[in-house]
Specification:
Mean pLDDT: 81
Order of helices and strands: HEHEHHEHEHEH
Oligomer: single chain
Shape: globular
């Protein structure tokens, strides 16, 4: 955590509302549900968020239900539930919104990959230190290339962008940016 995933999601989504007059929904797929909690806090304080937020976290009771009622999906129960929830939210909202964003956790698993079936692009946030850049490279190699291939095979568009966050040493960025970018991120476009 801490790479700015949720912050980036909120900033881009609110920019679409404020500057482009678009109607935006954020699907909070992060198990921490920080956006769902922020929405609740805003409502308790009598304030309204300018973007709509809906959570799709998966509860233990839902996983148990799949184990009992849909045993052929038991091995991937959490992914199955998440995919069903996201499918329902997308079906119910795709006509109501100009843009739908996903706020994702910073780890890889089948639950996370399930949501990519609904995505046209992904913004991967990363810090500028070697450890974070290496982790981003591995993430891109393990997930993104597979997603792009699946989307391409279906004739669908999918792009990946990366966003450097927490840039405190601008001199270091200027001096080492191209080298690190090539080493860790290859041909992924900047935003």
């Amino acid at each position: 955590g801490g790479a700015g995933k949720t912050t980036t999601t909120v900033l881009v989504a609110t920019t679409m509302v404020e500057y482009f007059n678009k109607k935006v929904l954020i699907i909070d797929a992060d198990p921490h549900e920080s956006l769902v909690m922020a929405k609740s806090q805003h409502e308790e304080e009598g304030r309204k968020m300018i973007v709509d937020v809906v959570g799709v976290s998966v509860g233990e009771d839902e996983i148990e239900y799949v184990h009992k009622k849909v045993p052929e999906r038991a091995m991937y129960a959490a992914e199955y539930v998440l995919f069903k929830k996201v499918s329902r939210v997308m079906r119910d909202n795709v006509e109501k919104y100009d843009y739908i964003f996903f706020d994702m956790p910073g780890f890889d698993n089948e639950e996370i990959r399930a949501t990519f079936a609904f995505s046209d692009f992904m913004i991967v946030t990363t810090g500028f230190n070697d450890m974070e850049m290496e982790r981003t490279r591995r993430f891109v190699e393990s997930i993104v290339n597979n997603i792009e291939k699946v989307k391409r095979d279906k004739g669908q568009y999918f792009r990946v962008f990366f966003l450097l966050t927490r840039l405190t040493m601008l001199k270091d960025v200027r001096e080492n940016y191209q080298e690190k970018r090539k080493k860790y991120l290859g041909n992924i476009p900047n935003i």
